[in-house]
Amino acid sequence: MNNIFNNLIVVGASRGIGAAVAEHLVSRTNRLITVSRSPSTIGEWVKADISTKQGIEIVSNAVGDRVLDGLLYIGGTWEDKAFTQEYSFEKCSDEEIENVLLVNLLAPIRLTKSLLPLLRKSSNPKIIFMGALSGLDNFPAREVANSASKFGLRGAVHALREELREDKIAVTIINPGNIGTPEVLSDLKEAGKSEENAIPLQDILQVIDCVLSLSRSTCIKEIQIPAMSAKGA
User: What is the CATH number of the domain that holds 144?
Assistant: First the structure.
């Protein structure tokens, strides 16, 4: 993929899949803005807590009035002890539940609204949200706040598709299972599970490349990506 972008934003770029996406795109972007609370060494780092309105304003001010080709919201959070046998909904604090909903659902909605004027200036604007298989109907997940936030994010994508139809701003949500970042592979090893329970990182990057390379005449709403050997396949 040889496309050169003027300006892209990757939210959640300090570690995990967000860092991998940022590193993958930085050489093809004239200005890559990376957003996170903890430091990122990739692109132009903006320190912001996007769970707050002030954090959204910080990001908007950092972008300025330049054309924005893409918003990639890769960041996310979940409850304490999520995805383990020790998780308990009843033990989750109200603050913890609220934070999951703020980061995973309200923040991407608010940030999209804030950056729409700049996306409209692009010749081929893209918005990509990172969802999860737990946001799909009947997926057997126990994490209440995380699942609710991912369900909601899917709803936002469907509504934005209609709202932004005339602007031809493509909005896509990618719903993966475990992604083979070093952190996830380490967790799988510790749990005595095979790496085949995770999606190869390169596969996710190729999917993102595909979405970014599509013409303005095309929009992919949702992409479901389970690992072949894992739950949800």
Answer: 3.40.50.720
